[in-house]
Design a protein that fits this description.
By secondary structure, the protein is of the alpha/beta class. Helix content is about 50%, strand content about 5%. Among the domains are: about 100 residues, Orthogonal Bundle (Fumarate Reductase Iron-sulfur Protein, Chain B, domain 2); about 110 residues, 3-Layer(aba) Sandwich (Rossmann fold).
């Protein structure tokens, strides 16, 4: 694609990177087949190819973006399915992140949007605040139908996504100190487990299962003091400087933690962000999704578990953002589960960070489409490797949702996942 950036504009590193990405686009249109919003809406401006053209016009102009441009950029999920499909290697992540930051700096949103987006950035990235928000939200849940009728759909969406309260949050120390969980034989290494923001409050059982599994695999699991949010939510909201500050704080915290084999995360969205630190702040980290890491070091010796049928939902941040596709279902199969694929597995479920709050109508349509395909697989449980997907899909699925690491922990000596308490094993 031809560009017309001035030398002054190209002096900005972000603009230069975006210009290089734009020039790689050949308008082939392969991306339209895998873009969820284009599949739903059929509008070229809601496809990656169309958005690239809108972004080029916006950045070249140097002026405030047109309202239509803001609308179509806002509708992007950042699922990055287009990057998997693109034969030209367009760095769409660079483009959409730069576009959001440009819009944040040059576009005056209506005050209700500014308030909502500011609250999301200040609450979801801080676990203590999120904990109180969840408690207040559960008290306000009966108001959801009223908010829907009043047209306050983002607020109604937040109440709909609230998880049931759980009592199984587990700090790092006790989980790694249990004698039954110590490595068999000499320790193989040491890893930092990302503490995260949303996941510890919404699905704390995932972190606990990961600690058991990693310890059983022979790795000391530590936490880095001073670690903060990975920055993904801020990046998606266009708050680029805030995301960079979080990245630098984490890099400093991990440096203080000493030598480790990897920075392991159980939230696929966080993993995508950590691997983007090279692009965002110019420093790479040895980030690994927990499933990726276990696939590399080997699954611990498994014990007998019921051969349950599991529908594997591939989170976009895993299959597109990190290009981790084969490892999760292969590990589940090695652990003894009957893994069933899901039709249209390349399409997003509509979670995508805070997309299901900011774009509730499109997110709901994508959720229902995904749920229908998962339910059609006929499995007794669903495995999803990202907290956002789990929260988005759980209310509308016929089967319970668990993280794959919970199943792998169970198969190698851990407890049965609580979500599977009522699932009956198949009989001979």
């Amino acid at each position: 694609m031809k560009t017309a950036f001035t030398p002054e504009q190209l002096a900005d590193p972000a603009t230069a990177a975006s210009a290089a990405a734009i020039r790689k686009c050949v308008h082939c249109g392969f991306c339209t087949a895998t873009c969820p919003t284009y599949v739903l809406l059929g509008d070229e401006r809601d496809s990656p190819r169309g958005r690239i053209e809108l972004i080029r016009e916006m950045l070249e102009s140097g002026a405030p973006p047109a309202p239509a441009t803001v609308t179509h950029v806002d509708r992007c999920l950042s699922c990055l399915a287009c990057t998997t499909t693109c034969p030209s290697g367009v760095d769409y992540a660079q483009l959409i992140d730069h576009a959001r930051a440009y819009i944040e700096a040059h576009h005056a949103r209506p005050w209700p949007e500014r308030v909502l987006r500011g609250l999301l950035a200040r609450v979801l990235t801080r676990p203590a605040r999120l904990r109180w928000a969840l408690r207040l939200g559960r008290l306000a849940r009966p108001l959801q139908p009223i908010l829907e009728r009043l047209g306050l759909k983002p607020l109604a969406a937040m109440l709909r996504l609230l998880p049931a309260p759980r009592g199984d949050a587990s700090p790092l120390g006790p989980a790694t100190a249990s004698p039954s969980l110590l490595p068999r034989g000499p320790a193989r290494g040491r890893v930092v487990l990302l503490q995260g923001c949303v996941e510890p409050e919404v699905t704390p059982q995932v972190r606990t299962a990961a600690i058991r599994l990693l310890t059983r695999a022979g790795y000391e699991v530590v936490q880095a003091e001073g670690e903060v949010c990975c920055g993904a939510l801020s990046e998606h909201l266009g708050r680029a400087d805030e995301a960079k500050a979080m990245a630098r704080a984490n890099l400093a915290a991990w440096a203080r933690a000493g030598k480790v084999d990897a920075i392991v995360t159980t939230a696929a969205g966080c993993g995508t962000m950590l691997k983007a630190y090279r692009r965002i702040v110019g420093e790479a980290v040895p980030a690994r999704d927990v499933l990726e890491f276990i696939a590399e070091v080997g699954l611990p010796e498994r014990v007998r578990v019921p051969p349950l049928t599991i529908a594997y939902h591939a989170a976009c941040s895993l299959q597109h953002g990190q290009q981790i596709k084969a490892a999760p279902p292969r590990l589940l199969a090695e652990a003894g589960f009957d893994v069933r694929p899901v039709a249209e597995g390349h399409l997003c479920c509509g979670s995508a960070g805070v997309y299901n709050i900011l774009q509730p109508e499109l997110a709901t349509r994508l959720r229902d489409r995904k749920a229908a395909n998962i339910n059609a697989a006929g499995a007794v449980a669903v495995a999803a490797g990202n907290v956002g997907c789990m929260a988005q899909l759980a209310p509308v699925l016929d089967a319970p949702v668990v993280h794959p690491v919970e199943l792998l922990d169970w198969a190698t000596g851990g407890p049965r996942p609580a979500a599977l308490a009522r699932v009956r094993a198949p009989t001979a």
